[in-house]
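Regression report. Comparing outputs from two consecutive submissions.

Submission 1:
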Amino acid sequence: MHTHHRVIVGDARDLGVHCEDAVELVVTSPPYPMIELWDETFAALDPAIEDALAAGRATDAYDRMHDLLDVVWDELARMVVPGGIVCINVGDATRTVDGTFRRFPNHARITEAFRQRGFTPLPTLYWRKPTNAGTKFMGSGMLPPNAYVTQEHEHILVLRQGTEPRTFRPNATERYEAAYFWEERNEWFSDVWTDITGTGQQLDAAGRDRSAAYPEMVPYRLISMFSVYGDTVLDPFWGTGTTTVAAMMTGRHSIGVELDESVCDQFTQRLPGVIDQAAERNRERLAAHVRYVGRSDTGPFDHTATHYSVPVKTRQEREIRFYDITSVANESTGHVVEYEPVTDLPDDAESFSLE
């Protein structure tokens, strides 16, 4: 098995100029309107935004920022296959403009934009970010009534192109091999993620501050949840390539679009570590399942995984298969990743029978 990954240096609003490919999944984290980190980015694309912020016209600036994002959403509506999924990691903003503190509901504004473009909103995920509990107060601290709730989570919007799920041929190998374990399903599809910490990336501080990169586990889970082996994943706000790394690790093709060419350099430096990173993630998942099977409170297990001789809960899990990366080659058209199937459980995993 092999996958292909390419990065396009350009404006995501011009996806039609750069890319005609259809994609099955979008996983991205756009610049967040009204978060100060992204003021320069938005103002460079529309100078009226800087004028609005300087004049204290918060609603005008907010609307103009989302108008810029709307052009990208138009492109996604064209590229995503019927039944394909768009996952957008975004946080709401809190900000004082012209002396007034308020929240700017980015998640609601983007959800409505996609609904207007024919997408069906599905249940939203929330992941809670690590915070410094000692310095998180906003407003009047311990004195009512003028303190403010601290926002400690981000939204992951899940949107389906059209109203019907994707269809597959009966017993499609790429779908059944991409299954997840029962316990993973219970954890991943819970609406609040509290176990994701750090960035999971090898970035220096300047690169992380510039990109506002999300942890690698976020796109890894989303790609595993909403696509199958061989699908193509698009990230129109590529940043430091976290989504591409996750696509490589999960055996999917990927396309990234990034306006800032300078952030691409660090991505190339990360590639040698992807082989070990993917293997470690596969070992972690298999070992975690073995531990789950060994617990006294998790049975019964009525089936056995075909490729790993380990008990599983359901028939849908039987063909689950993991692939290690064997090589990453830089070619003129992008990066080509080669894989080989994982054939054994981790060396330190115990064996279990169905008796």
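Submission 2:
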Amino acid sequence: MTKPPNAPKPKAEAGNDKDASISQAEIDELDEDGWGEENKKEEKLPPLKPHAKPARARKRHNMIRNLFVLGVLVPILAATVYLYVIATDQYASYLGFSVRAEDNASPVEMLGGITELTGSSSGTDTDVLFEFIQSQRIVRLVDAKLDLRKMYHMPSDPIFGIDSDVTIEGLQKFWGRVVKVFYDSGSGLIEVRVTAFSPQDAKAVADAIYDESTVMINKLTAVARDDATSYARSELEKAVERLSNARAAIQKFRLETQIIDPEADIVGRMGLLNSLQNQLASAQIDLDILMQTAREGDPRLVQARRRVGVIQQRLDDERARFSATDGTVNGAYANLIGDYERLSVDKQFAEQAYLSALTALDLATAEAARKSRYLAAYIEPTLAEKPEYPQRLIILATLAGFLIGIWVVAVMVYYSVRDRR
């Protein structure tokens, strides 16, 4: 007889754990009370069906598996074979430098404590140099010097090499792969890593980059010096032209008037007037004395009067020349003096302007010479002894993570679309 599934278990007496189980006699007694009939009815019920069927592979499962194999495993295997069998080893050369701007203080500034004596990095020039190393211009310059197309042409390694007839645009893109520039804007340090198929080629490219960067910094320094002195030079040229015109005007005046220095000439003329006046006064005194002692018609008296008349006429003529307006070159002497004074003032002003412009140019040149830029290399181009690239494990790990990520996203998108149907 079968045991009823829901038959209550009799409680054991307190303190007797061994008699806690139901004995066979009690089961038979319960069966006689009707529990067996219910059990029999339950045995006649049909068995319950499971809610879920056993799992089995579907078509979509095979598709996902094939996608993982073709989209992840096969590319990783192909990349592994290429990296470890076909890819050529590459050597790296490292170069580090910074742009230094030395500003040597003048003695006055040193006494006043205005400037510092130590050099500092020029951020603007470093930014320019950072962009220059990645530009097409340096690619052309280095290619003209080393023939990059021949250096990096590797028929057995088409991925890490280039074609021999690649354009300059393609060569610039490849330059970005083999030349990595790292720039710290805070400290102004630039570090360059160059890779090539031989250590000598890598070092040669690094040397060429350093040389071209030095040329660029020298050009920037020359441009800065020209900018600092260009205004002073232009002012000096204007001052020289003004002084030349002033001197030419004075020379023209001297040729037309035939007077070297009107001021000196007028001093001589004034001396002549003074002498004539003295002579006139002496002749008049002599005439007065003769008139007191001699009679009319005395030849001495006639001669004395004639002498006074001649001196007076000469004195009047000399005085008339200072205000004459007869149109002759040497006529209006007062006008000549005015013209000469004007020309002299123009000449003096031109000379002062020339001296000021020359001094300003000297100061600007000295200031530009005190501020010099140069390229300071803290890492000379290195020569590698063993290949460091390509970094096969890193490439494979990156590729695997990328492909697995794409595969996971594709599967999630597929199930998302499928669940919305």
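Expected: both submissions complete independently.
Actual: both completed, but the second showed a warning that disappeared on reload.
Relevant detail on submission 2: The chain has a mean pLDDT of 79.
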